[in-house]
Amino acid sequence: MLEVASQPLLLEVNSVVKRFGGVAAVGGLTAHVRQGSVHGLIGPNGAGKTTLINLITGLLHPDEGQIHFAGRHLEKMKPQQIAGLGITRTYQNVRLFSGMSVLEQVMTGCFLERKAGLFSSFLGLPSARNDWKRVREHAMHLLKRVAMDHTADELAETLSYGEQRRIEIARALGSNPRLLLLDEPTAGMNHAEATAVGLLVHELRDAGITILMVEHNMGLVTEFCDSCTVMNFGQLLAEGDPRSCIANPDVQEAYFGRKNDAERIKSLR
Ligand SMILES: Nc1ncnc2c1ncn2[C@@H]1O[C@H](COP(=O)(O)OP(=O)(O)OP(=O)(O)O)[C@@H](O)[C@H]1O
User: Fold this and answer.
1) pTM beyond cutoff 0.90
2) b (16+ CB within 10 A) / e for 49-67
């Protein structure tokens, strides 16, 4: 397990608030992600995890508070500016393009590899052809990295859910991120597929990418995360070592209810 406490902070969320009408989806949250770590973001349904990911990536802007990434303020930036700083994400529901091959899907994420302008692409000049070759090679390399290169020419929608999620990760790697946000990367997977994603996440971390992942499977959180933040009703419930967080009585109560609730429900049967 990585000694995360000694790593510098890469992402700092300070007293962030995001309201939707009368609901504070994120209600004054402070959280920290250290460089080079796999950081789990956990909490019951509706705790505000996806809203936080949307705030970090600029799809939403906070009503209050600050978000710092490598010393830069993100809270007023547009999604493309934030992507340019080295933050990319995957979504809770797979968002691949229909009718595109696996390789083409990954090529769409490699926008930083493109050097030729629209004019040379339109005229099919050598610079545009070299550009295309470079992007294709980079995408193929990323597919190898997620062990999906054998599917390069297949239509993405014909693949299993687990395989499609790996392709989404490859696409997100296309812009060489420093911070990769994974929103429930193992949703709908069996144990073997989920463990394979955990191992992939460790490989990416060991290659220097910091990972923030929303995960509901506590076994995976304790096995693969170096640290975690637990949210409930938009607020911080616990932060730190995954085992201690999950053992925290407040976290247990948020997930499973109070002990006497269980007794009370039993007595009603
Ligand atoms: N765009 C929106 N408009 C209105 N309310 C929203 C919006 N997005 C989220 N919410 C509300 O904010 C709260 C937090 O939702 P969010 O999706 O962030 O939780 P979550 O922890 O990701 O949940 P889950 O684990 O079920 O995905 C919920 O009450 C949700 O209904």
Assistant:
1) no
2) bbbbbbbbbbebebeebeb
